[in-house]
Each structure stands twice: as structure tokens, then as C-alpha cells.
Amino acid sequence: MKKILSIILAAFLLTSLAGCGNHSQADSKETQTVTEGQKESAESTSPAEPETMQEETAQEETETASEASSSEAAESEGNTPAAAAHSDILVAYFSATGTTKGVAEKIASVTGGDLYEILPAEPYTSDDLDYNDSSSRSTIEQNDKSVRPEIGSEDISLAGYTTIYLGFPIWWGEEPRILDTFAEKYSFEGITVIPFCTSASSGIGRSGSNMEALAGTGTWLDGMRFDGNVSESDLQSWIEGM
Ligand SMILES: Cc1cc2nc3c(=O)[nH]c(=O)nc-3n(C[C@H](O)[C@H](O)[C@H](O)COP(=O)(O)O)c2cc1C
Fold first, then answer.
1. Cβ–Cβ < 8 Å for 194, 223
2. Regarding predicted confidence, which is higher, 77 or 192?
3. Is residue 130 part of a domain?
4. Whether residue 119 has pLDDT greater than 60
5. Per-residue pLDDT for 88 more than 60?
6. CA angle, corner 225, sides to 221 and 229, nearest 5?
7. Residue-range definition of the domain harbouring residue 148
8. What tens digit of pLDDT does each residue of 185-232 get?
9. 185 Cα–ligand 1 center, Å
10. Distance from the alpha carbon of residue 147 to the mean position of ligand 1, in angstroms
11. Lower CB count within 10 Å: N or C terminus of the chain?
């Protein structure tokens, strides 16, 4: 009986051991499968996701940074987005030889307005400005009302501006043609435009109404002619008297 029990026990132990062995093999196969799966994941899906997310995050960061930097750039250029803080007064001017520029700077100082220079894409040389030469660039331009010299300075957003002082020298009794380019280029909706000019002696003439007709938007005043050496207090009186 003892012998029979020993044989049964031995047989049971052998069966158990064999089962363990099989199980262990299966385990190891399973482990391998999982490892391969992990490896697959490691090589494809899983890492790709973080990479994609990283890329997306980086892209988001880049977009945010570029939005911020373009906003900063816009502010530094005066090309201000509507939401950014700036004065609601703009002093825009064209000046071939610096006289109007000086008056524009005084008006900006008196009003706290922002300055914007209308620069010609092709600068005027002294030969171009020779009004005694019937074939000089300025004479040809002023004799042809359809000429529109290109503006070379950065575009400006007029959003948020309610008043624009618009300065220029008088050329042949009226605004230089590049002012016509400016008037046609922008919308002056909701803006009061106050022309001002410098000259040897001529008044501002029909410059304001010329530009108003070309612009088609905005409220344009006749404006005023100044000497280059006009004082800030005289400019202040003119502004307060309007
Ligand atoms: C092409 C040209 C035409 C001009 N025509 C006149 C004019 O008709 N009447 C006048 O009083 N001054 C005239 N001037 C003088 C300028 O208006 C004056 O010097 C002005 O202050 C120059 O301004 P800026 O230095 O800002 O360019 C003319 C000047 C130039 C170059």
C-alpha cells in the first residue's frame, strides 16, 4: 500500500513538474510576445505619439512666440495691431528735405501722437527736386495727376487712430503725388485727417480736398501751412483752435 501511494505521489509530482515546465515556457513565450509588442510600440505607436505631441507642443510654442514676436515687431514698427496700446493720434508725413519732418515732430510732441514717415521707395535726389528743370522727376510727377510714386516705408495699420495729422511740402502749389498714393492706399473710415504743409510761401491750396476725393473715406480738413521754424506753442494754439 505504501508502495502504491509512493507511486501515485511520484506520478502526481511528475505531472505537476511537467505542467510547471509547460507553464513556464508559455510564460516566457507570453513575455516575449509582450516584449515584441512593447518593442513594436517602442518603434512605432508609443514614441510616435509623444514625438507628435512634442512636435505639436513645440509648434504651439512656436506659434505663440511668433504671434508675440509679430505683435512686438508690429508695435516697434508703428504698424500696431488694433488691440495694442498706442496713441489715437498719428502724425504721418512726407518730407523731401527735412523741413516738414521738423514740423511733424513738433506736432507729435505737442499732441503725444505717433510718428510715421512716408518714405518714397525711390528716394528723391536733388536733381529730382529741381523745380527749374521742366524734365526733373518732381516736375514730371506734378504735371501728371495720375502718377503714384511707390511708398517704401513699412505699411501702417490705422486701426485705433481717430486723428491723423498729414504733413508734406507744397510742390507746384499742392501735395506731392506720393501723398496721393498714401490717400488711395488706406481706409480713413472714422478718422479725421488734418493736412499740414511747409512751403517757401504758397498756401496749402486744394491739397486737402484733392486727397479727400482720392481717399473717398474719412473727414478731411483743409489744413494749414507753416514755416519750418513754427514754434510748438503756435502749433498748440492752432490745434486748440480747431
Ligand atoms: C519740386 C518742388 C516744388 C516746389 N513748389 C513750391 C511751390 O509751388 N510753392 C512754394 O511756396 N514752395 C514750393 N517749394 C518749396 C517747398 O515747398 C519748401 O521748400 C518745403 O518747405 C520743403 O519741405 P521738405 O523739406 O519737407 O521737403 C517746392 C519745392 C520743390 C522741391
1. yes
2. 192
3. yes
4. yes
5. yes
6. 140
7. 89-240
8. 999 999 999 999 999 999 999 999 999 999 999 999 999 999 999 999
9. 24
10. 18
11. N
Residue 165, SS3 per DSSP: strand
Are 194 and 168 a contacting pair, CB within 8 Å? no
Cell 509588442 sits at which residue? 37
By most ligand atoms within 8 Å of CB, the mutation choice from 171, 174, 198 for ligand 1 is 171
Ligand 1, residues at Cβ distance < 6 Å:
95-101, 129, 131, 138, 169-173, 198-202, 228
Instruction: Indicate which residue's Cα is closest to atom 9 of ligand 1.
Output: 202
> Ligand 1, from 100, 128, 131, 178: best to mutate by most atoms within 8 Å of Cβ?
131
State the CATH number of the domain containing residue 126.
3.40.50.360
- All three cell numbers of 143, joined, read 504735371
Q: For ligand 1, atom 27, which residue shows the shortest CA distance? A: 96
- Any domain includes 123: yes
E strands of 86-190, at which residues? 89-93, 114-117, 163-169
Which amino acid does the sequence have at 75?
E
Q: Is residue 161 part of a domain?
A: yes
Domain count, the chain: 1
The C-alpha cell at 218 is 474719412
Nearest CA owner, ligand 1 atom 31:
129
Q: Report the separation in Å between the CA atom of 229 and the middle of ligand 1, taken as the mean of its atom positions.
A: 15
Inter-residue contact 236 to 112 (CB < 8 Å): no
